[in-house]
Amino acid sequence: MKNKIRWIAAFAAGVLLLAQAADAGAEGGEYLADGSRTFWFLQLTDTHVSTWFNTQYGARLVWAVTDAVETIDPRFVVVTGDLTDSTAGFDYTQGPQLSEWLEYRGYLESNGMTPEFYFDLPGNHDAYQDGALAYYLANSISGHAYRTTQPFWRLDMPYGSSVYESSFRFCREYKLSIAICARPVQYAS
User: Is the pLDDT of residue 107 over 80?
Assistant: First the structure.
């Protein structure tokens, strides 16, 4: 029960309330008190799907893409890394495990996650012994659909559009920096 409460708290904390532009001083950005230009998205991290170590992570991911998505009704879901564990339970030198990637993708596909709604970004665990991120590109939702390790997506709303760009880089051996940047789309007049 404690673990479920922790996961619920973590997911609730990860859900962010955004205005069209996060920066109040951004050109064209404004916050309306009535919430008409506000939307929800769900941000998850460190799903660590594992067939070796802690198999409860898979159940938690399923809960997030079913019950949490149904309750929150987000415009999109973004997962910021460590999609699989890639340690064979104890040793990162083992590298990616195809069984973990197939299990990860199976959870998502069987619960209706599509590349237009679910954006998964690689993390350091996903790159263990796979610097080219071949397993990510072949088996993740975004990597497989868009053939890139740094996907971006566009959200069109009645009041305007925003583009979300993701990037990551290795700062030091197996240390990772992930950034997601939202910017309003500017139309030429």
Answer: yes
In this predicted model, which residue has the larger pLDDT, 29 or 93?
93
Per-residue tokens: 80: 């910021």
pLDDT value at residue 21? 35
- Report in angstroms the alpha-carbon separations of 185 from 38, 93, 159: 16, 42, 11
Contact (CB, 8 A) for 118 and 151:
no
Tell me, what amino acid is at 55?
T
Q: What angle do CA 83, 88, 90 make, to 5 degrees?
A: 105
Question: What is the β-pairing status of strands 118-121 and 77-80?
Answer: parallel
Report how far apart, in Å, the C-alpha atoms of 3 and of each of 7, 8, 66 are: 6, 9, 18
E strand segments, the chain: 16-18, 39-44, 77-80, 118-121, 152-157, 160-172, 175-184
- Note whether 79 and 121 are within 8 A (CB): yes
pTM for the model stands at 0.76
Four-CA torsion 33, 80, 119, 144, nearest 10 degrees: 170
